[in-house]
Amino acid sequence: MKAIAVAKFKDKPSLMELPKPAVRPGTMLIKVVAAGINPFDWKMVDGILDGAMPHQFPLIMGVDGAGVVEEVGEGVTRFKQGDKIYGQFIHAPIGEGSYAQYAIVPESAAVTKAPVSISAAEAAAVPTAGMTAQQLLDKLNLAKGDTLLINGATGGVGSFATQLAAAAGIKVIATVGDDAAADRMKKLGAAYTINYKSAPLIDQVKKEFPQGVNGLIDMVSHTTAGFNANLGLVKAGGGALTTLFVADDDVLKSKNIAGGNFETKSSPDALDKLSIAIDSGDLAVPLETRITLEEAPAAIALSRDGQAKGKTVIVI
């Protein structure tokens, strides 16, 4: 089968011809239809989970995926052959990922039946970004009418978070880089957009919201200093979360701001909630780009360089 894989840590991803995996007890063989690209995928190539989980090489990349159950192993009861599923395929050993024509996925993984109202390509864009957005908002626990600044709003997580927050009556301030992005974010429910390229973000937010905002989701600031500077925009008693693990708990405490570093907790239940929102028409999937397996290495390079726009999915 064809797959995007690496031969060793920090290797350059390439299209390889690898054996079709064989189903094991407690697992399913999935015929992959689409795989979503996330920064965490190449971070695994860099060894972010080295020492925490076993790895195998060639390491097939990919966490998010959607496809059809082709075969179930002994003991599998949640799914049957022919079921359309989606979710996070990650499991031990790392290296049996979704960037392939076939993948082995444990029944116990964060996977569930796919939404019926969208394509497999759209479903593959949902799992990591959707669950992250959902849980970020749950943790902030903002009320209707509160203001939320999303720094990094135009990406997958930001696009989902904007919609979910707006649906809850929260006024979203979305950062954008151009007029087209501003239009897209407003269509997704953003009450305000701020072009970070036209002037410093902090200056613009302070001018428009001198009393401060109630919440901050920061997916852009890669340094503690940058995140701390943005905390000055948040009212005392508010909340701020970073997905980049740069928060200083002592600084947050000194400013009477809740939150800090955020990590997604994946589960089938969380995915089922997203499926309900999608199938009811309350949540649109922000799929920006569809590519082939052959085009995946270039797309991964763009993600590494921070040049990816919106959500990219590999259609297999």
Automatic annotation (TrEMBL):
SUPFAM superfamilies: GroES-like, NAD(P)-binding Rossmann-fold domains. Keywords: NADP, Oxidoreductase. InterPro entries: ADH-like_C, ADH-like_N, ER, GroES-like_sf, NAD(P)-bd_dom_sf. SMART domains: PKS_ER. GO terms for molecular function: NADPH binding; oxidoreductase activity, acting on NAD(P)H. Transmembrane segments: none annotated. CDD domains: MDR_like_2. It holds the Pfam family ADH_zinc_N. The keyword Oxidoreductase applies. The keyword Transferase does not apply. Gene3D superfamilies: Medium-chain alcohol dehydrogenases, catalytic domain, NAD(P)-binding Rossmann-like Domain. This is NADP-dependent oxidoreductase. It comes from Chitinophaga solisilvae. The lineage of its organism: Bacteria, Pseudomonadati, Bacteroidota, Chitinophagia, Chitinophagales.
